[in-house]
Amino acid sequence: MKKIAFLFALAFAIIGCNNDDDVAVDAAVTFEFTQNWDGDPVTASNFNGASSYTNALGTTLTISKLRYLISGIELHKADGSTIKFDDYQLIDVTDVNSLKLNPTLRVPTGEYTGISFIYGFNEADNVSGAYPDLNAASWNWPDMLGGGYHFMQMEGKYEDANGALQSYAYHHGTARVSEGVFEQNYLSFDFERNVTISGDTSIEIKMDVSEWYKNPYTWDLNVYDTDLMMNYAAQKYMHDNGASVFSIGAISQ
Amino acid sequence: MKILKYFFGVLILSLFIACSSSDPDPIDPNEDYVPTPKPLAVPPIFKRLLPPPNIPADNPQTVEGVALGRKLFFDPILSGDGTQACASCHQPSNSFSDTNRFSVGIDGLEGTRNSMPIYNMAWSTTDKFFWDGRANSIEEQALGPVENPVEMHNTWENAVASLQSHAAYPEMFNKAFGTSNITKELTAKAIAQFERTLISANSPFDKYLLGEGSLTPQELNGFQIFMDESRGDCFHCHGNDNSPLWTDNAFHNNGLDAIITDKGLGEVTGDPNHDGLFKSPSLRNLAFTAPYMHDGRFATLDEVINHYSEGLVYSRTIDPLMKAVSRGGVHLTESDKADLKAFLLSLSDSSFINNPDFQDPN
């Protein structure tokens, strides 16, 4: 009986609070990370040979791993101010929990004009060993290659010219120019998108995987399949192709 | 309105107090008993680089729980004929593995997998235990061997009855869990608490990272080979200087067999794409854990290195990180192999196997 009275009192108190002078002026934002191959959804169910893809060069390939890092997400308000999220997200297509980021920071309701984010980490954030969860995920990029963290690991198999299956490990991070000389290799994205946030909002960040092989460099897996991390040319081709990989998809409230 | 809020605040507070103090559960008279908390001692290198240890909310570490778990771990009482303890196949001197390719159970039967070493379990990021990932927690893992017919070959009903009629155990369970009514779940919880205390992070390489020790030029060169994608490329699955677990805790087919006979993870998930995948073991304490691989096929570290260097064979689910498979691997030079081995051995921690807190208390 005491417990019932307690619950009643608690419910009444909560309702009382809501009816008080607290007017909702902020909203929760969720970022949803989706992947597609030229428009067709790519999920873990497509991995390990369940689906084959043909890249721009015409090479048939499968995917067994796709992990990538997004950081520095910002929402831009119509009044010129910016909402900055401290979060970073290691997306692993085989881990559904990683496909959504729910920042603790809430955003003011109102008019917004765009969203920006970083693929990978920028120089300031790409510090070797600085993130325990990424360390535990073995996401580190070797110090001999500039250190910090991987930006992406995409792996699988492709058919070579003889029809034999070969492995590829399309791993992206800081580019090593020469011994001890490194070049930043992340990508900043800034998308204009007018949206009125009036309540809790979900924003889709899309990756078109096919773009990694397409534009401007037509990727040849027969040339660049493995041992790409220390390969400066391959790292820069990845960087250049990455510019057309991401887009903003559905925004729902 | 403020007065109303204050009134409800007082009301809620008083009800909380009333609920907690005057509503004892009549089933368990020891509900209020709290064993002595004993948080894990997190080593400095883990504190610096890794997330906090993963302790389940329903099985906190306690002095009494760990003591009970330690006694159980070394006590053959859990086996069908009272001859075999957890420690029979998980010996401290072997980093809690044993020296056999396949361990032998109480009936003289061999298993099909190599006994896994036990350490740093609270940092197992994927919560998948056994070589094939079939247990989802350490507690669940600890339940397995007692009833396994090629291991301890007992029933839990019988094991619990033996514990219940023992002179010391009922009181030890009472001190650990507030009840002397022994169950298999509480037994597994106690063993899991002890296992979580088995922390190894004091190898020469750890001391080097902490600035407390140095490595030989050969060991340092071996580390470079380990981290070089075109030579060892060990780090993608086995950690690195910023990921000191020395495992990714994930599952891979590392090119051992052209025809998969032991499906490993695939047997558990039913997914043929998981056939031949096994959990990456940590590279700590290799000096004590021979033989190697899920089936203990390699007696020495040299054989392991030779496998990755020139012994890889293709199968459908082989991990893409196994490279140059058509040539058997990347063909390290003999000098590189020797240096890599020297580095690997610098991850062995003799203070771990000699830790008095981890030895047989019985």
What is this structure's SSE topology?
The complex is a heterodimer of chains A (253) and B (362).
Chain A (H helix, E strand, L loop, with lengths): L1 H17 L7 E2 L1 E9 L2 E2 L11 E2 L5 E18 L4 E3 L3 E5 L7 E2 L5 E2 L1 E10 L12 H5 L15 E8 L5 E8 L2 E4 L2 E3 L3 E11 L3 E8 L23 H11 L3 E7 L1
Parallel strand pairs in A: 2-16
Antiparallel strand pairs in A: 1-9, 2-3, 2-8, 4-5, 5-6, 5-7, 5-10, 5-11, 10-15, 11-12, 13-14, 16-17
Chain B lengths: L1 H21 L21 H6 L13 H11 L12 H4 L48 H10 L8 H9 L4 H9 L6 H14 L6 H6 L7 H11 L7 H4 L12 E2 L12 H5 L8 E2 L21 H11 L22 H12 L4 H4 L9
Antiparallel strand pairs in B: 1-2
Helix pairs in contact in B: 3-7, 3-8, 5-8, 10-14, 13-14
Protein name (chain A): Copper-binding protein MbnP-like domain-containing protein
Keywords (chain A): Signal
InterPro entries (chain A): MbnP-like_dom
Q: Your description of this structure?
A:
The complex is a heterodimer of chains A (253) and B (362). By secondary structure, chain A is mainly β. Chain A has one domain (23-252). Chain A has helices at residues 2-18, 132-136, 232-242; strands at 26-27, 29-37, 40-41, 53-54, 60-77, 82-84, 88-92, 100-101, 107-108, 110-119, 152-159, 165-172, 175-178, 181-183, 187-197, 201-208, 246-252. In chain A, strands 4, 5, 6, 7, 10, 11, 12 and 15 form an 8-stranded antiparallel beta sheet that branches. In chain A, a hairpin with a 2-residue loop joins strand 2 and strand 3 (40-41). Chain B is mostly helical and 362 residues long. Chain B has 2 domains: 44-199, Orthogonal Bundle (Cytochrome Bc1 Complex, Chain D, domain 2), CATH 1.10.760.10; 204-351, Cytochrome c-like domain (Cytochrome Bc1 Complex, Chain D, domain 2). Helix content of chain B is 38%, strand content 1%. Chain B contains 15 helices and 2 strands. Chain B has helices at 2-22, 44-49, 63-73, 86-89, 138-147, 156-164, 169-177, 184-197, 204-209, 217-227, 235-238, 265-269, 301-311, 334-345, 350-353, and strands spanning 251-252, 278-279. A two-stranded antiparallel ribbon of chain B has the order 1-2. In chain B, helix 10 packs across helix 14 (334-345). Chain B is globular, with a radius of gyration of 24 Å. Residues 1-27 of chain B have low confidence and may be disordered. Chains A and B meet through helix 1, helix 2, strand 11 and strand 12 of A and helix 1 and helix 11 of B.
